[in-house]
Write a structure and sequence with these properties.
The chain is built from nine helices and no strands. It is an all-alpha fold and about 160 residues long. Bound molecules: heme C (HEC).
């Protein structure tokens, strides 16, 4: 996520193949592969998971499925950038839409924001620590408000 975040922020060169690979990795670990890691009453071990997972299991399952849906869409749309010239973006989007049934408006950029929001909405509800170690160290994401005790809302794009 961190290396993808840097690419989408324009800090490092955009590499569609890397985005595809990262997305595939996330997709592989999502949905039922993820929910299976959380059998009921599995909190004997030190864990950042909150017991509310099993009270709001539907929401937990939904977010796991969303993670798969969005990461797969990102894999398929890795070539479709928001900043592409509109004609190139349009024809690329149409091709992608026909092959994968991805909505024409789904650019890699918007899907990445959706993906980051899915990570953080699940962590906000179901994980004890609010900020992942990766993002804790990401100074670019620490606005004044954040460092004065605010919360990270969206791991990649938004603070407090
Ligand atoms: C369906 C809910 C859910 C979604 C979606 C989700 N996570 Fe998590 N994540 C958790 C929970 C719960 C934990 C705490 C697990 C534990 O400590 O047992 C966690 C832990 C983590 C950790 C710490 C792992 C460790 O070994 O301590 C990282 C890093 C992480 N998530 C990254 C992400 C990223 C990046 C995304 C989005 C691409 C994401 N997560 C999406 C629920 C989710």
């Amino acid at each position: 996520m961190k290396s993808m975040s840097a690419m989408f922020k324009g800090k490092t060169a955009y590499d569609a193949e890397a985005v595809r690979q990262h997305s595939r990795t996330i997709a592989k670990h999502s949905d039922t592969t993820l929910t299976k890691l959380f059998p009921e009453d599995s909190l004997q071990h030190a864990s950042e998971a909150k017991p509310v997972i099993w009270q709001k299991w539907d929401k937990f399952e939904f977010l796991s499925a969303e993670l798969k849906r969005i990461s797969e869409a990102l894999e398929n749309s890795a070539d479709v950038r928001e900043s592409d010239s509109s004609e190139a973006a349009m024809s690329m989007t149409m091709d992608t839409a026909m092959m994968t049934e991805t909505a024409a408006s789904d650019t890699a950029d918007s899907l990445f924001r959706e993906l980051a929001d899915t990570c953080s909405s699940c962590h906000t509800t179901f994980r004890k620590r609010k900020i992942t170690a990766d993002y804790e160290n990401d100074q670019s994401c620490r606005t004044a408000a954040c460092s004065s005790g605010g919360r990270l809302l969206s791991a990649a794009t938004q603070c407090c």
